[in-house]
Amino acid sequence: MATKAKYLLIEEEIRKRILNGIYPARELMPDQNTLAQEFNVSRMTIKKALDRLASLGLIYKQSGLGTLVLGNIPIKAAEDSPANAFDGLTEQQGAEKIQSKIIVFDVKFPSEDIQKKLDIQKDCPVYEIVRLRILEGDPLILEHTYMPVELVPGLNEKILESSVYEYLHQNLKLKFGGAYRKIRAGVPDKFDKKYLNARDTDPMLELEEIIWLNNGKNIEYSASRNRYDKRSYTVIDVNDF
What we know:
This protein is of the alpha+beta class. The chain folds into 2 domains: 6-69, Arc Repressor Mutant, subunit A (Orthogonal Bundle), CATH 1.10.10.10; 80-234, Chorismate lyase-like (Chorismate lyase, 3-Layer(aba) Sandwich), CATH 3.40.1410. It contains 8 helices and 10 strands. The longest helix is centred in the N-terminal third of the chain and has 14 residues, at 6-19. The N and C termini lie far apart (41 Å).
């Protein structure tokens, strides 16, 4: 796998400084030029790192005024995941904490439903992937994913056992343009009971999404299942008016 991008390393360092109080809450942090000089990178690289921190609610960027440190959100929990994230579970939690168990990895022609969701023809082969994501030894997410083979060449089990999104971004140089996501509750099915240890009375949380590239092509349709007590999805709203 490719080395982690500079902006991700800078994001991690600034996040540590915020959480450790080096950049105190309710105070302005150093400006982008100062940070660019310190880390010996461009302002654009700093901006990308700060954008990610802003999406987590750790900072608030005020146009013309600077960047205000917000610090940890009181209601935020360790199991929370941003509903608008594009970095994937491995990046969010750290590769050393995440294990991926492959349940299904196959190439097939898409059903009518998958054709519609990925906006592809019936003769366009897709990967069907079912993975159990395990966080520090505890089953967390059951993912059922479809991707067009044409857009994701070379996908293999080794990649599935680590980070698919890192492969897309770093190796294939693909950029996500956006996503449509739907979060809903449901009852446990036999797979939830088998792989997530769900009981008959456990509500299930499902995240269904279609992700497209910056050229408009749909690259992923997936449905991820979580037990109600294992994961929450969060949204940060910022008033720019």
